[in-house]
Write the structure tokens for this entry.
Amino acid sequence: MRDLLSIENLSVAFEVGGRWVPVLRRVSLQIDEGDSVGLVGESGSGKSVMALSVLRLLPRAARVIEGRIRFKGRDLLELPETQMRTIRGGRVGIVFQEPMTSLNPVFSIGFQVAEAVRAHRPMGSGQARAEAERLLDLVAITPAGERLDDYPHQFSGGQLQRVVLAIALAAEPELLIADEPTSALDVTVQAEILELLGELRSRLGLAVLLITHDLAVVAETCSRVSVMYAGQIVETAATRDLFDAPAHPYTRGLLASIPRLGRPEVRGQLPTIPGQAPALGDLPTGCSFHPRCREVMEQCRVDEPEMARRVSGGEARCFLMDSSTVEKAEIGREDS
Ligand SMILES: Nc1ncnc2c1ncn2[C@@H]1O[C@H](COP(=O)(O)OP(=O)(O)OP(=O)(O)O)[C@@H](O)[C@H]1O
Ligand SMILES: [Mg+2]
């Protein structure tokens, strides 16, 4: 598969009260054409900042310190703003958690989808309306023709998220970034939306970056997964390999907190990782996870581990991996 998006050693900092706080620290992520990649981590780990960096939508207080973001070989951080507009909402679509942040309550759904079509593809209003109907049908808002003139308040939360998907697909993107697209929905509706994402991926050849705090969602949806902790990616692997052999103690903690199929465990009774993530402005020395790590060693308090190759494929940022079987994988090595 061909490389679509490639984030290399990206570091981003926010200015908070006159100080620069590192929010992303040398994160790297690859997405191939048509691939589905999950980005997992607890609240505040930097998932949304990563998505916003790709679209160059970071708030004013943020600075890219280092790194590159390439989309089909073009460096997005160097691209003039005019060309960036063909990427943002064009080649790269985005869906957020809360559908109403993307919809206007005073316009009909059909109008809003048609406008999204016309923003990226020149066509008359009649043709755009027909295209809006086709897109609504694609996301299973049926009968699409009868819903075009309805307003957002006439749709359920799950239906609104489908409408937002139709808008994101209006420009025929190659990559869809979905930032917690189902967190606000109940479990059944969540499963329907995830299923729809999978269908769209195979029908349209769309690549998807799915951002979530829920590893179980990734297990069903993504072929690869990256785990974030305190602004770093601590482990990346094929989903199967990650579930079979999680290498980083943080990943292992996350996996242990997923209810197993057939075992009616209550969330509160599942093992959780003790302690909490560090404040980004006050990171511990050494490995950022060491204060919470059950397998902490002396070295972890002093040195920061680099990404190293996992035995079964992928990479993890941990000294625990047996150095005799693990090859240092210096991330960002390929400087092509
Ligand atoms: N505008 C901002 N100014 C200062 N700090 C910010 C700003 N936006 C985000 N941050 C900080 O960046 C860090 C990462 O935020 P981000 O929103 O990417 O987390 P997240 O992983 O998406 O979390 P969640 O799961 O809650 O959505 C957080 O610690 C947050 O405090
Ligand atoms: Mg977020």
User: Anything to note?
Assistant: The radius of gyration is 21 Å. Confidence is low (pLDDT under 50) at residues 324-336.
